[in-house]
Design brief:
The protein has helices spanning 24-27, 43-49, 95-103, 121-128, 183-186, 219-229, 250-266, and strands at residues 5-6, 40-41, 51-57, 60-66, 75-78, 85-87, 109-111, 132-135, 149-152, 156-158, 164-167, 176-180, 189-193, 197-198, 205-206, 236-239, 245-246. With 269 residues, it is α+β, with helices and mostly antiparallel strands. It is globular and about 50 Å long.
Amino acid sequence: MVAYICATCGVQHEPSDEPPGSCAICEDERQYIGWTGQRWTTLDELRAGHKNEIHDDLGLTGIGTKPAFAIGQRALLVRSAEGNLLWDCITLIDGATVDAVRKLGGLRAIAISHPHYYSCMVEWAKAFDVPVYIHAADRQWVMRPDAVIELWSGEAKRLWDGMSLIRAGGHFDGGTVLHWPGGAEGRGALLTGDLLQVAQDRRWISFMYSYPNYIPLPASEIDRIVAAVQPFAFDRIYGAWWDRNVASDAKAAVHRSAERYKKALTTRL
């Protein structure tokens, strides 16, 4: 049996003799089925034409696939004396990547912001013999169930070295961001995937229910997201793609961006 991978979202599914009939994540209105129809690939096929690049991204180690695959996000390695955390995940994992991460201290755990980045999380977890933390509110989107997946509930989960997972919601009910108090030279950082989406003008962020289908979130949900991160000190936000970061003044950026977003929802042009 083969654990097939959706070519549009990059999420690996439970092993089967034939490709699944559909990808539930892509059929959801927050994603989309590729314009040429549902297509599947495998890790072996992906390894034949892609490789991972590993380099610094504003003080963190980024891991991304080249050429870009599926949604194209990069993962981030948060290094700690108490154990490294891989934030978000990418589909491609190969021997060279495993060796490189081990040279950087390996992993203690993996944490993922939301289902679009579940990718090959089980393969990554098994390679490093670590758990994957995802919020229980998103359990229905786990396409490859496995004992390595640890569901957590509530509004926050304490990790180690002061790090915390925060349920922000918005894009998905269990949408999670990571607070890293040691980030930004000790001023604190949030790792947000695209739940708090760093805009092209990187002084700003934005929020959406569906990015590819341009469905906004209501003002009440924006207020809830802002309230969820408010108790935490942070001066920097790391987004989901290379260099998509708010380098400084990030907490103020969240507040002014939220107010701009809510104003746009109610203002007639």
